[in-house]
């Protein structure tokens, strides 16, 4: 076989010699498929608990049995006086921001007088939504609150969108700030992730928790990149809850202290402090 050489001459082709050592099959490197850190699994089938919220996820991770009593066995948990008061004040705040309570800030909201006045003005300008129902499917697409494919639900007390790609989330609290900073901060991050996925044009979100009784505030803020780096981890936690088959009790001091199902004898696995002594 003749071969054209680079200088234009023609000559006989000389077989190239393989100077590399032969590789056995065991020596061959086979790269593994790359799994990107931001990938999430959306192909799973949900179980007996088909949807989650931040509060139900927190309860599940503390004690799966408690959530199963409420959502699988359908044993209702009565509201407490503190919860009822919280609901009343939340409703009052919503009505004021919507302009349904007059101009004067109601007494329970007075410690955040300027903040509520600013929210009310922003609502009048069409920048604020109150108690809007956010519903997501397993792939974090939007759906209806009561639709069968609803996988995650979130309801924000107040959500203010600015025209510069930023937004403010406000969550009203009637409980205490001290000792709840970590939990409430995680709640804010969950809201931020949902907001960034719901509104692709947002680049920055600030979350404020207003502790109405004490006049205290907790603030967190995220860029899109900072928040969404936590999205796969949150998704996996929620997947664990919504695909669960078993719901074991996890008795502990914190889980059992205010648990209705333990106090009423419905749950038999109640934390016994004497066993830790």
Overview of the molecule:
The protein is built from nine helices and seven strands; from the N terminus they run ββααααβββαββαααα. It has 277 residues and is of the alpha+beta class. The protein has a domain at 54-81 and 127-245. α1 (54-62) crosses α2. The protein is globular and about 55 Å long. It comes from Gallibacterium anatis 4895. InterPro entries: PDDEXK-like_dom_sf (IPR011604), PDDEXK_AddAB-type (IPR038726). It holds the Pfam family PDDEXK_1.
Residues in β-strands, percent: 15-25%
- Given helix and strand content, the structural type is alpha+beta
General form: globular
Mean pLDDT, rounded to whole units?
90
- Using only C-alpha atoms, the radius of gyration works out to 28 Å
Q: What proportion of the residues is helical, as a percent range?
A: 25-40%
Low-pLDDT ranges: 1-10
Number of beta strands: 7
**Order of strands across the main sheet:** 3-4-5-6-7
* Separation of the first and last Cα atoms: 91 Å
H/E order of the elements?
A: EEHHHHEEEHEEHHHH
Q: What count of helical segments does DSSP give? A: 9
Largest sheet: 5 strands, mixed
Biased composition (Polar residues): 16-26
Pfam families: PDDEXK_1
Protein name: PD-(D/E)XK endonuclease-like domain-containing protein
Region (Disordered): 1-34
